[in-house]
Structure prediction request, 210 residues.
Amino acid sequence: MSMDQQALYDARLELVNFLIDAFADVPSEAFVETLLSGNVSLPDESVSERLDRGFAELETFIDENRDRDADAVRDDLESEFTRLFVGPRPPVLPHETYYREDTDFRGGGLAAVEASYAAAGWSPPEEYPEENDYVAVELAFLRHLIRRQQNGDEETFGYQRVFHEEHLSEWIDDLAADVRERTDERFYEAVAALLEGDVAFEEEIAMQMA
Prediction:
């Protein structure tokens, strides 16, 4: 593997790890400290319109909060995460079966997502408390496929292409739009842009390689 290929895999994994952390639970102390420390790698060159917007918003968030107490920033993000995604009565439900009009949780939608995981020999980690169609779980599956690709398993590009076509890319743009509409917190505006940009970027890779 060339250095350019390795750098691309590192960047793909770093971004999907960031998105998993952003959606999996309230931000941890370590997550916020890393953000504010300046140790977050942001691209120097344009990637895509949506990713560029997300990276710019994330950079602005970091600049605006760099001199604040990390605990205070974490408290703000925890409050907004809870309001957005936990509730009571959260305005955003980041589950595929909530957004899909052609299926639902009880109508086999969750089973279809889980079948995609099983086809690739993957089981969701137990530490995720949400159902297996939750956005962080679907992103964790994407991360699993990227890691296998990095290790030379070209078959996983096919699994990734199908997962985009049948699941991930069918609802992420709507989720991102809802997050943007429902929040005034710049961090989650950045997360929304990065989410839709990354899923589109990953789908393009899968379509080219599968």
